[in-house]
Write a structure and sequence with these properties.
By secondary structure, the chain is mainly alpha-helical. Helices cover 72% and strands 0% of the residues. It comes from Frankia canadensis.
């Protein structure tokens, strides 16, 4: 089980992350597809090699090939959109928002999975990437479709833990020069 392996790889100073990774992947209000799509999309957005390799393997045990592709699509599109729309916000010039984006994003309209699932995955990636405009848009879309705040919060919690695990393991790999070894304790 990849989650168990990641938990072992986390250093002692990240004990809370060990516990959080176990709890967010086992105790959630998200459906199994929603949860593992959030895990996969967040791992991609977090850019941590070890985290992505381990979590993708486990996510693929819980997702259909179509759902896995849709989670990857959410991560890819949000990688683009989060930069674009966050930049528009940071420029503080409303005239840019009036300009046509000219960015292809047809998959958002027809992601191949339930729209709520895709929106949750897009929200999670937007949380990792810190795009307030995208977070607001996806949260409003989800709330408009009747998704409870607690479900939305779960997706954000999963994304935050996956990202923290990726950052922590990347730091260990960078300072040690190798993939982390299981922690002792």
């Amino acid at each position: 089980m990849a989650v168990a392996r990641l938990r072992e790889l986390l250093p002692d100073h990240a004990k809370d992350l060990r516990l959080n990774l176990g709890s967010v992947t086992s105790q959630s209000q998200l459906s199994e597809q929603q949860l593992w799509g959030v895990v996969l999309a967040s791992a991609i957005a977090s850019r941590g090699r070890t985290t992505l390799v381990e979590l993708e393997a486990e996510a693929l045990e819980h997702l259909t090939p179509t759902a896995a592709d849709a989670a990857r699509t959410a991560a890819a599109l949000m990688a683009m959109n989060n930069i674009y729309y966050r930049t528009l916000h940071l420029l503080e010039d409303d005239e840019y928002a009036k300009l046509r984006a000219g960015l292809r994003m047809n998959a958002i309209a027809n992601p191949g999975v339930d729209k709520v699932d895709f929106e949750l995955w897009s929200l999670a990636v937007s949380a990792v990437n810190g795009c307030g405009r995208c977070l607001t848009a996806h949260e409003r879309e989800l709330r408009g479709r009747g998704v409870a705040r607690e479900v939305i919060q779960d997706a954000i919690r999963v994304a935050s833990v996956v990202h923290a695990v990726a950052v922590t393991l990347e730091a260990v790999e960078t300072t040690s020069g190798a993939t982390p070894s299981p922690a002792t304790g």
